[in-house]
Amino acid sequence: MLERRKARRMALEVLYQREITGSSLREIIKNRALAGEKPLSEFSLRIIEGVAKHQKHIDEMIEGYADNWALERMPPVDRNIIRMGIYEMIYESDIPFSVSINEAVELAKAYGTEDSGKFVNGILGRIALDLQKSCSGSES
Fold it and tell me: Could you tell me how far CA 33 lies from the centroid of its own chain?
């Protein structure tokens, strides 16, 4: 469990750095290795690559659920944490929604603003409800 929490933190660092610097993921990962940092875990890489691959769809979801918040107005940390949470809920079927949300909220509390935890929880919670409805609706 702690390994995945650490992997999420590392993924957030890379995604945040990409957004702030405009560097490519490949360049950031290479520079981390050159700086002597531990290699990213398979789970970190899956999150990073998954968010990047599906970012357009994920960002459209965020815009649809973040009432009165333009994506570009969100703090970059919150935006990337929400992206990671959505990625997990949609593409990592072995992780319960509640775990993805809880982990995202913990990251938000640790790295975001005073209100980040509530903000992240609100958006991901609403998305999870709709995803659960659509999944249970398709099974009937």
Answer: 22
